[in-house]
User: What shape does this take?
Amino acid sequence: QVQLQESGPGLVKPSQSVSLTCNVSGGSITTAYTYWAWIRQPQGKGPEWIAHMFANGDTYYNPSLRSRASLSRDTTKNQFALRLSTVTPEDTAVYYCARTDNMLLVDTWGQGTQVTVSS
Assistant: This one.
């Protein structure tokens, strides 16, 4: 059974960058036809797709965040990561990592990690 666990700094100052890591267990991030995503949800608002990575390492970014988001992965640790630069209070949200099927339907969620942007 695949499990995902996010980790991150929690509190970030405006204009700084935030890096989040998703540790995956019970399955490999390089398994064919799997996709690994970052999704966020601000309090009181709907979820927003940030980006996803294919099993071969190719990436897709939400056009609204493309200039500030960057995905990476460490296959030796079975982890993938999100870096979001130049954050503002509007980036405050719970950030989730997730696995999707090849239709980009989420089948496994991490528990989420709160990121708060505040001075």
Notes: The mean pLDDT is 96.
